[in-house]
Write a structure and sequence with these properties.
By secondary structure, this protein is α+β, with helices and mostly antiparallel strands. Helices cover 51% and strands 24% of the residues. It has 3 helices and 6 strands. Helix 1 runs antiparallel to helix 2. The chain is elongated, with a radius of gyration of 21 Å. The chain starts with a helix and ends with a strand.
């Protein structure tokens, strides 16, 4: 059975891997932009550099978002709820996470199902989207 600490550890691992990938991609984009030499077609050069700068900015935004996710995840303000239909980690809006052939839905406090999950107790049923869930465990 999945545990809250195990799910958090796996999610953190995946976020760290993503952060490493983004930092590598950022460095490659910066190197590419900086190695672009000015040609006789000045407008083409400026357009190319501006496109590279836009891409760099997008990557920087993704890095900041991923760093914030990691910070939020490790802040210990998380809830892990097992139901008969699946497991939910209420922490960050990561989406579906697969661990040991099990799926965990990583959702934020503002996800529509969160209100129902947080207002339940073990062995209590709730209906969300026409599906009846039974809470098995809360940690």
């Amino acid at each position: 059975m999945l545990t809250k600490s195990g799910v958090i550890a796996e999610l953190n691992k995946q976020l760290q891997t993503k952060l490493t990938y983004l930092n590598t991609t950022l460095q490659q984009a910066i190197d590419s932009r900086n190695s672009d030499t000015k040609s006789s077609a000045g407008d083409k050069f400026e357009t190319s550099r501006e496109m590279a700068q836009i891409e760099i900015h997008k990557i920087e935004v993704q890095i900041l978002k991923t760093q914030q996710f990691i910070s939020d995840l490790l802040s210990n303000v998380t809830q892990f709820i097992n139901t008969d239909k699946g497991s939910f980690l209420i922490a960050i809006p990561f989406g579906k996470l697969s661990i040991n052939n099990s799926e965990v839905f990583c959702i934020s406090n503002s996800a529509p199902i969160t209100k129902d999950l947080l207002n339940t107790e073990i062995s209590v049923n709730f209906n969300f989207g026409g599906v009846v869930y039974t809470v098995i465990d809360i940690s």
